[in-house]
């Protein structure tokens, strides 16, 4: 996502930052390149024009060109304008809003194939983790197996599903809300039907459903792979239903980013969540400022911190630190960390969130999953004693491990060597940290 745009903008601003003085002609040339980069990323022409005009106006109007570091100042202006293009000035507007009296009703709408059913389950799981139990309502009675799919997902995340087969979708939605109120659930997520394109029959049905259930949120599920088409779809749904927010799917795919950069500008409803994978846990809140930083190659430290904090409790983190200090960190611990990190995304994507590192990594940088699988296979081929004490790994043991894991002895040797170096480095780091803290 945004890789091509990030590369183009990075090259443009790198040239600007390398100049001691920037004239109006230099700025004009750079802004023309920025507009082309946005259009190539499938950003709508009105949004691209307005964005470039605002950046140019602020760059000229604040004596930026005469400052000591004009290139950096212009990048800061671009970052602020990207943030404004992606979302509202008040981040609170991009959060879910719930009604005062439960149950809070959230209605998911969108075209057929956008992923409404899957996103309903993802959102229900996220709310469950925050302490809000939801009832999933299967109101898509037209798509084959839509009800069965939602029931299967509900079972997977251990939340109830209200369904009545092929009945009247408006009545099903209304009765689902009544059922949630009867059993005391705080939230209702209504999965609605879609069409291949917007039509009057679909909109009339959704309008009647909205009147019947009075949702506090109408979330449009839009496919980011469709680019500017997603913006046209958003306008159609917003005009008829009053969309309050957007869930943008497939942001982990090979998409240029035009939908994310155009939707808020087009309808004024913020992107609230983004789908970043197939797993039912692969739904993240959208932060406009963080996404702007990632587009400009500045990394995303806050999201990285939140992802890693979700892996371990404070007590587990302290225990891990003590293991490093006592040199008691084992290959079992290493394997556990490897598996935990894989739960929150690919290694390559996590590294790109590190500020400063994302600009240095090659464009096509990835950490091959096959390599991670190989490391896991090697460790799993060891005995429990060998994992706890790698010093036991003599030549014959390493040969046995290589055969058991389908690898070469040289790969086993490399893993053990890297593990020893990591353990030694972490012990030294821990010792310096204790000295610095006066412990």
Layout of helices and strands:
Elements: H1 3-17, H2 24-40, H3 45-61, H4 70-86, E1 104-109, H5 116-129, E2 134-138, H6 146-157, E3 161-162, H7 169-183, E4 187-191, H8 200-213, E5 217-223, H9 228-241, E6 245-249, H10 258-267, E7 271-275, E8 283-285, H11 288-295, H12 301-309, H13 314-325, H14 331-342, H15 347-352, H16 369-380, H17 384-388, H18 395-405, H19 409-437
Parallel strand pairs: 1-4, 1-5, 2-3, 2-4, 5-6, 6-7
Antiparallel strand pairs: 7-8
What tags apply to this protein structure?
19 helices, 9% strand, Four Helix Bundle (Hemerythrin (Met), subunit A), 434 Repressor (Amino-terminal Domain), alpha/beta, 8-stranded mixed β-sheet, flat
- How many helices? 19
Number of domains: 3
Low-confidence stretches: 432-439
Give the overall shape.
flat
CATH topology-level name of the largest domain: Rossmann fold
Strand content: 5-15%
CA radius of gyration is 26 Å
Main beta sheet strand tally, sense and closure: 8 strands, mixed
CATH class of the largest domain: Alpha Beta
The residue fraction in helices comes out at: 55-70%
Secondary structure tally: strands: 8
Structural class computed from helices and strand pairing: alpha/beta
Order of helices and strands: HHHHEHEHEHEHEHEHEEHHHHHHHHH
Question: How would you explain this protein's 3D organization?
Answer:
With 439 residues, this protein is α/β, with parallel strands linked by helices. The chain folds into 3 domains: 88 residues, SRP54, nucleotide-binding domain (Four Helix Bundle (Hemerythrin (Met), subunit A), Up-down Bundle); 205 residues, P-loop containing nucleotide triphosphate hydrolases (Rossmann fold, 3-Layer(aba) Sandwich); 133 residues, Signal recognition particle, SRP54 subunit, M-domain (434 Repressor (Amino-terminal Domain), Orthogonal Bundle), CATH 1.10.260.30. It has an 8-stranded mixed sheet, sandwiched between helices. A hairpin with a 7-residue loop joins strand 7 and strand 8. The C terminus is likely disordered.
């Amino acid at each position: 996502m945004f890789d091509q745009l990030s590369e183009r903008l990075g090259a443009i601003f790198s040239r600007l930052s390398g100049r001691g003085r920037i004239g109006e002609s230099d700025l004009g040339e750079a802004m023309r390149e920025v507009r082309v980069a946005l259009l190539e990323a499938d950003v709508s022409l009105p949004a691209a024009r307005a964005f470039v005009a605002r950046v140019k106006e602020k760059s000229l109007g604040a004596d930026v060109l005469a400052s000591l570091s004009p290139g950096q100042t212009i990048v800061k202006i671009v970052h602020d304008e990207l943030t404004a293009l992606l979302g509202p000035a008040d981040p609170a507007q991009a959060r879910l809003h719930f009604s005062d009296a439960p149950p809070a009703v959230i209605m998911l709408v969108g075209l057929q194939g956008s992923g409404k059913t899957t996103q309903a389950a993802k959102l229900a799981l996220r709310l469950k983790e925050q302490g809000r139990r939801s009832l999933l309502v299967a109101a898509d009675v037209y798509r084959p197996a839509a009800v069965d799919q939602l029931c299967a997902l509900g079972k997977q995340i251990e939340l109830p599903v209200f369904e009545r087969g092929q009945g009247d979708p408006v009545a099903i939605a209304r009765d689902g809300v009544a059922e949630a109120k009867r059993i005391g659930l705080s939230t209702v997520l209504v999965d609605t039907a879609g069409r291949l394109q917007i039509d009057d029959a679909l909109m009339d049905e959704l309008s009647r459903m909205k009147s019947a259930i009075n949702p506090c949120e109408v979330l449009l599920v839009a496919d980011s792979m469709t680019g500017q088409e997603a913006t046209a779809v958003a306008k159609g749904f917003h005009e008829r239903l009053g969309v309050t927010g957007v869930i943008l799917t497939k942001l982990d795919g090979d998409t240029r980013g035009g939908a994310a950069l155009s939707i808020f500008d087009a309808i004024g409803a913020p992107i609230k969540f983004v789908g970043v994978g197939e797993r039912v846990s692969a739904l993240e809140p959208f932060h406009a400022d963080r996404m702007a930083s990632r587009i400009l190659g500045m990394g995303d430290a806050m999201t990285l911190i939140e992802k890693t904090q979700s892996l371990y409790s404070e007590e587990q983190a302290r225990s891990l630190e003590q293991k490093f200090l006592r040199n008691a960190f084992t290959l079992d611990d290493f394997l556990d960390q490897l598996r935990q990190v894989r739960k929150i995304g690919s290694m390559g994507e996590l590294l790109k969130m590190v500020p400063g590192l994302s600009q240095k990594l090659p464009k096509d940088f990835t950490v091959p999953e096959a390599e991670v699988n190989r490391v896991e296979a090697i460790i799993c081929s060891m005995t429990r004693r060998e994992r706890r004490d790698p010093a036991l790994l003599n030549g014959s043991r390493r040969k046995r491990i290589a055969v058991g894991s389908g690898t070469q002895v040289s790969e086993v040797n490399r893993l053990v060597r890297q593990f020893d170096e990591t353990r030694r480095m972490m012990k030294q780091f821990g010792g310096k940290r204790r000295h610095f803290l006066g412990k």
